[in-house]
Write a structure and sequence with these properties.
The complex is a heterotrimer of chains A (about 240), B (about 400) and C (about 425).
Chain A: E1 2-12, E2 17-28, E3 33-37, H1 44-51, E4 59-64, E5 67-68, H2 74-84, E6 85-88, H3 100-111, H4 115-128, H5 144-157, E7 162-166, H6 174-189, E8 193-197, H7 201-206, E9 209-214, E10 217-223, H8 230-243
Parallel strand pairs in A: 3-8, 3-9, 6-7, 7-8
Antiparallel strand pairs in A: 1-2, 1-4, 4-5, 9-10
Helix pairs in contact in A: 3-4, 3-5, 4-5, 5-6
Chain B: H1 4-13, H2 15-47, E1 57-64, H3 71-84, E2 88-94, E3 104-109, E4 119-126, H4 131-135, E5 139-142, E6 151-152, H5 156-159, E7 163-167, H6 168-174, E8 184-187, E9 190-198, E10 215-217, E11 219-220, E12 225-232, H7 237-251, E13 255-262, H8 263-306, H9 308-316, H10 321-357, H11 365-391
Chain C: H1 2-15, H2 17-45, E1 56-61, E2 80-81, H3 82-90, E3 97-108, E4 117-124, H4 127-131, E5 136-139, H5 144-148, E6 153-157, H6 158-165, E7 174-177, E8 180-188, E9 211-214, H7 217-221, H8 240-245, E10 249-256, H9 260-279, E11 290-294, H10 295-301, H11 307-337, H12 339-347, H13 352-388, H14 400-426, H15 430-434
Parallel strand pairs in C: 4-9, 6-8
Antiparallel strand pairs in C: 1-10, 1-11, 2-10, 3-4, 3-7, 3-10, 5-8, 6-9, 7-8
Helix pairs in contact in C: 1-13, 2-11, 2-13, 2-14, 11-14, 13-14
Chain lengths: ~240, ~400, ~425
C-alpha cells in the first residue's frame, strides 16, 4: 500500500536547516492499522503530512498504491488525495459555514460526483457515524465528539482505501475518544488501511501495529497482538465518572 | 527611542499591506493636490469681481420683423420709454451682453494696419452715453461720452466714432508706462481717442479671455436683432422684468421680446460648466479622501487583529499602552511619508502632463505641500483610534491559546 | 460547480457583512464616479451618424495671404467665405453638397391669434437633407427649380408643425418668417442629437434649428449669421454686399463623398479652384492649403469633448485605482483569514484551480454587485450634473453601452483587486493549517 524509502524532509529557513525527517523508511501493507507515537517535535506529523501528500518531501522515494509520488504535479496529488486518502484531524477542521451534510459533501464535489450519488453516499456515511438526523446542523452546534464523527464521515465519504488520522482523539474526553477509536477499528475491519498519529500510549496499544518516531527516524516497532481488557475500559469510564 | 528599526523590519515582512497603503497614499496625494489646485483656480475665477452690479442689471433681446419703422429711431423711443419707467436707473442699447458668452472682439492697435505695432485683442461694447451708468461702472480717469460723440450708422471705418473708453487692464496693456488718457488707438483701422478709463469691466466671455482688456465704443449700428441693457433699483428689478415685454410691445408690436434675464442669471448660466467641474472635483476629492482614510483605518485594524497575541505578549512583558500606540503611529508615519514622497513626485508628473495637454497652469508647490500635510494628519487620525483600542488589549491574551 | 461557488460566495459575504459591504461600496463609489464622467464623455464623443460619418466631409480652405495667422491648430479657418461656399456648391461635381449657416426669425402666421416667437433657422440647400439623412413626416425638400428661382419655401420641424398646425399636414400652407411669407414644402422629424455635429460653431451641444430655408434667400433678405463671423485682414463692411464679397468667413459647408474616387475628384477640384482664385488675386500665398475632414475627424479637430471632461475621466479612473487597491487590501485580509478552511479543502482533494476559481467567483460576485450599485450612484451623479447645468441634459445620461460597460469595468476592477489575493490563497500549503494549536 505505502512504501517510503529513505525519505527526508528538510525545512529551510534563512539560516537554519531543520531535519524533520531523515532517511525514513517504512512499508505499510493493505488493511493494516498502525499507530505512530513519539515525543513532541519528533516528526510524526511531518511523516503523516508526507504520507498524505499534503507536503512535498526533500529526498527519497515514496510509493503510494503503486504510484511514485515524487514526480507528481500539484493537480495529480490533489486528485490522489481526493480519491485514495481520507483525513481525520485533531481539530476536526470542519468548515464552519457549511452544515454537516455540506461538509461531508466537499470531497465528493471535488471528485465531480453527481448530486444524486452524492446524496446517497452522504446519508450513508452520516448514518454510519450516527448523525444522520442532524445533517442540517452547523458544526458549532455539536459537541467535540460529534464533530469528530462528522469529520470521520467526511473522510469515509470518498470511500478511501487509506485513512490518516492525526491525534484524532486529542481534543476529546476519554469516553468520546473511545467511541472514535471504535469507529476507526470498525472502518479498518471493513478494509481501509489506517495510520494514526497519537501520543496516547493506551490508545496506541489498541492498534495492531505500533511504530515510534524519534528525531525524524523510525525508532523501533513492536507488534502488539493483545486486545484491551474489559476492565481497562471500565477503569477509564470510572475516571470519567469521577471527573464529572 | 522610536524603535524604527524593528518596525521597519516588520513592515518589510508584511510587504504587501505596506505597499498597498503606500500606493493608496501616493495616488491620493497625486490626485488630490492636482484637483485642489484646479478647484482653487475655478473658485478664484468664480469669485472675481465682474465690475457690474449684477443684481441691478437685466438684459433683453428684441427681434424686430416689422419693416415700417426705422430701427434706430425705434431704438431711441424704446430707450426713452424704459428710462422713464419708475425704478429704472438707466438703459442702453448694446450689441453684446456682458458675461453672456456672445459678443464681438477686434484687435486694438497703436498704429493703423498694415503698419506693424502692438496689437491687443479687445472684446468691446457698442453703447451710448448712458452705457457707463447702465453698467454701473465708475470712471477712474477722464470723462464719459458726450451725446454728440455717439455715432449712429453702419460705416464704422468711414464714418464712425472718434472716442473710446477703455478698461484699466487695456490701458495698461497698451501703455505699460501709463498716460493712456488722451492717446489715440486704432480699432478696425479707425483712430479713437481714449477719453476715459474705467476699472474692472469684464468681457462677454470672461472665462475664454481672462485679460479683462475691454472697451466701450460710442457707436450704434441698430440691427433687427438687438440687445438692451437696463439697470434698475435692486428691489424693483423683478417687477420691471415681469412687465418689460408688454411695455415694449405696447410701444411697437411687430417684434418679439426674448431672453429677459437678470445679469446674475446670465453669469450663472455662463459659468455653469465651471461650477459643474468645480463641484465634480470637490465630490471626487472628498470621497477619495474618505476612501483613503477608511483604507488606512481598515489596514491598521487588520494589522492589529493579526498581531493581537503579539501585542498582548508585549503588554505582558511590560510595554506601556503609550508604547503600543506609538508603535502603530510610527509604523503608519513611515509608510505615510514614503507614500507622500512618491505621491508628491507623481503629483508633479501628473500636473506636468495635464499642463502640456490642457490649458491648465502649472501646479503650484503650495498645493502639494498642503495636500501632504492634510493627508498626513488624516492618516494619523485614521490610525490613532484602532491603535488606542489595540493598546487596550489585555496582557492575559498572551497566555490564552487561540 | 460554478453555481456551488456562487453559493459559497454568498455564504462568505453573509458571514462578513461589514467587510463585504465595504468592498461592494468601494467598487460602487469608484464605478459610480467613473461612469458619471465616462457617460458624459461617451455621449460627447459618440459617433453622431455612424452609418455615414466616414462619407460626410467638411472642406476648409486657407484663404489667408502669407503672413496672416488663424487661431486654429493647423492655421486653417473653421468656416468658408460666402463666395467660396457658393463657388464650391456650384462646382460641376455630381455629389450632394450644401452650404449652411444658422440664423433666426420671428415666426408667426400673420394673424393676431398666434403670438410671434423667435426661432433659430438654418439656411441650406436641398442636398443638406440628403447628406444628413433627415426623415420627412410630410412633403419633401424643396425642388431644384424652387431653389434656382429663389422661391420663398421652407421646411419646418415637427415641433413647429405641432405648435402652429396642430400636427396636421401643413405642406402648402404659409408661414411668416419676420415679415415674409414662405410656402411650407416639408415637415422633418425633430432632430435629436447629442452633439450638434453639423454646426459646432454655436456650441457643440446646442439644440437643432426648427426651420430650414434655401441658402439663396440669404442674399435677397440680407440674413446675417447667428454664428461666428471672423476676418483675418481689415475690411470695411458697410452692407451685406460687402459681407458677401469679403474675406470674412461665416459659412459652413458639407459634402458627401461615397468613394475614394469621389474624394479624389473633389480634392482635385479644390486645388484647381484655389489656383484659379490665386490668378484672380485671392489666395495670395506660397503654398495652397486645404483640409477635407470627415465628421469624426471634424469633431476631433474641434475638441468637441471638453477638456474638463477628459481631465475628469482621467482623474476618476485614477480614483477607481485607489478603490481597487483598497479592495485588494480588504480581500487579502479576508482570504488569508480563511486559509485554514482552504487547507482543509486542499486536503480533501481540491486542486489549486478549484480554490482559485472559488475565490475569483467570490470576487466577481462582489464586483458585479459593486457595478450594479455603481450604476445607481452614477445615475445620481448624472442627475446632479443635469440639475447643475441644463446644457448637459442630453449628455448626462447613460445609454445601453454605458449600462453594460459599468458591470464590465467593475468586474475588471475587481479582478485586478482579486487576482493577487486569490493566487496567494490558492498557493496555501494545506499542511500548515491542519494541525490545530
Amino acid at each position: 500500500m505505502l512504501t517510503m524509502n529513505n525519505v527526508s524532509k528538510i525545512y529551510q529557513t534563512n539560516s537554519v536547516q531543520t531535519h524533520a525527517l531523515r532517511d525514513f523508511s517504512l512499508t505499510v501493507n493493505e488493511g493494516e492499522f498502525i499507530a505512530v507515537t513519539g515525543p513532541s517535535g519528533s516528526g510524526k506529523t511531518t511523516f503523516l503530512n508526507i504520507a498524505g501528500l499534503l507536503e512535498p518531501f526533500t529526498s527519497g522515494q515514496y510509493t503510494l498504491d503503486g504510484v511514485d509520488i515524487g514526480g507528481l504535479s500539484d493537480n495529480e496529488t490533489a486528485d490522489l488525495r481526493n480519491q485514495k486518502i481520507g483525513y481525520i484531524f485533531q481539530g476536526f477542521n470542519l468548515i464552519p459555514d457549511l452544515n454537516l451534510y455540506e461538509n461531508v459533501e466537499v470531497p465528493l464535489r471535488y471528485r465531480g460526483i453527481a448530486a444524486k450519488e452524492r446524496k446517497i453516499r452522504i446519508e450513508q456515511c452520516l448514518e454510519q457515524v450516527g448523525l444522520a438526523s442532524r445533517a442540517k446542523h452547523l458544526p458549532q452546534q455539536l459537541s467535540g465528539g460529534q464533530q469528530q464523527r462528522v469529520a470521520i464521515a467526511r473522510a469515509l465519504a470518498g470511500k478511501p482505501r487509506f485513512l490518516l488520522a492525526d491525534e484524532p482523539t486529542g481534543n476529546l474526553d476519554s469516553l468520546m475518544a473511545r467511541q472514535v477509536m471504535e469507529l476507526l477499528e470498525e472502518i479498518n475491519k471493513n478494509g481501509a488501511t489506517i495510520v494514526m498519529v497519537t501520543h496516547d500510549a493506551e490508545l496506541a496499544r489498541r492498534a495492531p501495529r505500533n511504530i515510534q518516531v524519534v528525531d525524524g527516524q523510525l525508532a523501533d516497532f513492536t507488534l502488539y497482538q493483545g486486545k484491551p481488557t474489559v476492565t481497562a475500559t471500565r477503569a477509564e469510564e470510572a475516571v470519567v465518572a469521577s471527573g464529572v | 527611542m522610536l524603535d524604527i528599526k524593528p518596525i521597519f523590519n516588520a513592515i518589510r515582512r508584511s510587504k504587501i499591506g505596506a505597499v498597498l497603503l503606500l500606493l493608496q497614499i501616493a495616488l491620493t496625494m497625486a490626485i488630490v493636490s492636482n484637483a485642489a489646485f484646479m478647484i482653487n483656480d475655478h473658485v478664484s475665477y468664480l469669485r472675481e469681481d465682474t465690475g457690474f452690479p449684477e443684481k441691478e442689471i437685466f438684459s433683453l433681446s428684441v427681434m424686430t420683423f416689422g419693416k415700417d419703422r426705422s430701427l434706430s429711431q425705434q431704438a431711441e423711443l424704446d430707450e426713452t420709454m424704459i428710462r422713464s419707467l419708475p425704478g429704472v436707473i438707466d438703459a442702453s442699447l448694446t450689441q453684446a451682453i456682458p458675461l453672456s458668452g456672445g459678443g464681438s472682439s477686434s484687435s486694438v492697435r497703436l498704429k493703423p494696419s498694415p503698419e506693424k505695432s502692438k496689437s491687443i485683442s479687445v472684446p468691446y461694447y457698442y453703447m451710448d452715453e448712458h452705457g457707463l451708468n447702465t453698467f454701473g461702472i465708475k470712471l477712474l480717469e477722464g470723462r464719459n461720452f458726450r451725446p454728440e460723440e455717439i455715432i449712429v450708422g453702419n460705416d464704422f471705418t468711414g464714418n464712425g466714432p472718434n472716442t473710446v473708453i477703455v478698461s484699466q487692464a487695456l490701458a495698461d496693456a497698451l501703455f505699460p508706462d501709463g498716460g493712456a488718457l488722451g492717446e489715440t488707438v486704432y480699432l478696425k483701422n479707425r483712430p479713437l481717442e481714449i477719453i476715459g478709463i474705467v476699472g474692472t469691466m469684464k468681457s462677454p466671455w470672461p472665462n475664454g479671455m481672462r485679460d479683462k482688456t475691454t472697451a466701450i465704443v460710442p457707436f450704434m449700428d441698430v440691427q433687427n436683432y438687438q440687445h438692451i441693457l437696463v439697470r434698475t433699483d435692486k428691489t424693483e428689478r423683478a417687477n420691471i422684468m415681469a412687465n418689460i415685454e408688454q411695455n415694449m410691445l405696447d410701444v411697437y408690436d411687430k417684434r418679439v421680446i426674448i431672453n429677459v434675464d437678470g445679469l446674475d442669471k446670465t453669469k450663472e448660466n455662463y459659468d455653469s460648466t465651471d461650477v459643474l467641474m468645480m463641484r465634480m472635483l470637490i465630490v471626487l476629492v472628498v470621497i477619495l479622501l474618505l476612501v483613503t482614510a477608511l483604507g488606512i483605518f481598515g489596514l491598521t485594524q487588520f494589522n492589529i487583529s493579526k498581531r493581537t497575541k503579539q501585542i498582548g505578549t508585549r503588554r505582558a512583558l511590560g510595554a506601556r499602552k503609550s508604547a503600543i500606540v506609538r508603535y502603530f503611529l510610527v509604523e503608519n508615519t513611515m509608510v505615510c511619508i514614503a507614500g507622500l514622497l512618491i505621491g508628491g513626485i507623481a503629483a508633479v508628473v501628473l500636473g506636468d502632463v495635464m499642463m502640456k495637454s490642457y490649458s491648465i497652469s502649472s501646479l503650484e508647490p503650495e498645493f502639494i505641500l498642503g495636500t501632504a500635510v492634510f493627508i498626513f494628519v488624516m492618516s494619523i487620525v485614521a490610525v490613532i483610534f484602532p491603535a488606542m483600542r489595540a493598546a487596550n488589549i489585555s496582557p492575559s491574551i498572551a497566555t490564552r491559546s487561540i | 460547480m460554478f453555481l456551488h461557488y456562487i453559493d459559497l460566495s454568498w455564504r462568505s459575504i453573509k458571514r462578513t457583512p461589514v467587510i463585504s459591504f465595504l468592498m461592494v461600496f468601494a467598487i460602487a463609489i469608484g464605478i459610480g464616479l467613473t461612469m458619471t464622467s465616462l457617460s458624459v464623455y461617451h455621449m460627447m464623443s459618440m459617433d453622431p451618424i455612424p452609418h455615414k460619418s466616414g462619407a460626410i466631409f467638411y472642406p476648409q480652405l486657407n484663404i489667408m495671404d502669407d503672413g496672416s495667422e488663424w487661431h486654429s491648430s493647423d492655421n486653417l479657418p473653421y468656416q468658408l467665405t460666402y463666395q467660396d461656399a457658393v463657388n464650391l456648391y456650384n462646382a460641376d461635381i455630381p455629389v450632394p453638397k450644401s452650404p449652411s449657416f444658422r440664423s433666426g426669425f420671428s415666426v408667426h402666421l400673420n394673424s393676431p391669434d398666434v403670438k410671434p416667437t423667435m426661432e433659430p433657422a438654418r439656411l441650406v440647400n436641398r442636398e443638406f437633407f440628403t447628406i444628413f439623412d433627415r426623415p420627412f413626416i410630410y412633403g419633401a425638400p424643396w425642388s431644384l427649380n424652387s431653389q434656382d428661382t429663389h422661391e420663398y419655401v421652407a421646411v419646418i420641424s415637427e415641433k413647429i408643425n405641432n405648435r402652429l398646425f396642430a400636427g396636421e399636414n401643413s405642406v402648402g400652407q404659409h408661414i411668416y418668417l419676420d415679415n415674409n411669407s414662405y410656402r411650407i414644402v416639408g415637415v422633418t422629424a425633430n432632430w435629436k442629437h447629442h452633439v450638434k455635429y453639423y454646426d459646432v460653431n454655436n456650441g457643440a451641444f446646442n439644440s437643432s434649428e426648427q426651420l430650414y430655408i434655401p441658402f439663396g434667400i440669404g442674399a435677397l433678405e440680407e440674413i446675417t449669421t447667428w454664428g461666428n463671423l471672423n476676418g483675418w485682414k481689415h475690411e470695411a463692411l458697410k452692407n451685406y454686399q460687402d459681407l458677401m464679397h469679403s474675406e470674412h468667413v461665416w459659412v459652413q459647408f458639407w459634402v458627401q463623398l461615397n468613394s475614394e474616387d469621389e474624394k479624389q475628384q473633389f480634392t482635385n477640384f479644390l486645388m484647381s479652384y484655389m489656383e484659379d482664385q490665386r490668378e484672380k488675386g485671392r489666395f495670395n500665398r506660397q503654398t495652397l492649403e486645404y483640409k477635407l475632414r470627415n465628421v469624426t475627424e471634424w469633431l476631433e479637430y474641434n475638441n468637441v469633448v471638453s477638456e474638463d471632461n477628459r481631465i475628469l475621466v482621467g482623474l476618476s479612473f485614477m480614483f477607481l485605482l485607489v478603490c481597487v487597491s483598497n479592495i485588494l487590501g480588504l480581500l487579502l485580509a479576508k482570504f488569508l483569514k480563511r486559509a485554514p478552511e482552504v487547507g482543509v479543502r486542499r486536503a480533501l482533494g481540491a486542486s489549486k484551480r478549484h480554490i482559485f476559481a472559488q475565490h475569483i467567483v467570490e470576487v466577481s460576485v462582489i464586483g458585479l454587485a459593486g457595478g450594479l450599485l455603481g450604476i445607481v450612484i452614477a445615475q445620481i451623479g448624472l442627475w446632479g450634473i443635469r440639475v447643475t447645468n441644463s446644457y448637459y441634459d442630453a449628455l448626462a445620461t447613460m445609454d445601453v453601452s454605458m449600462l453594460l460597460a459599468a458591470p464590465i469595468i467593475a468586474l475588471v476592477a475587481s479582478f485586478l483587486a482579486g487576482l493577487y489575493p486569490a493566487w496567494l490563497v490558492c498557493r496555501t500549503q494545506p499542511a500548515i493549517y491542519l494541525k490545530s494549536q
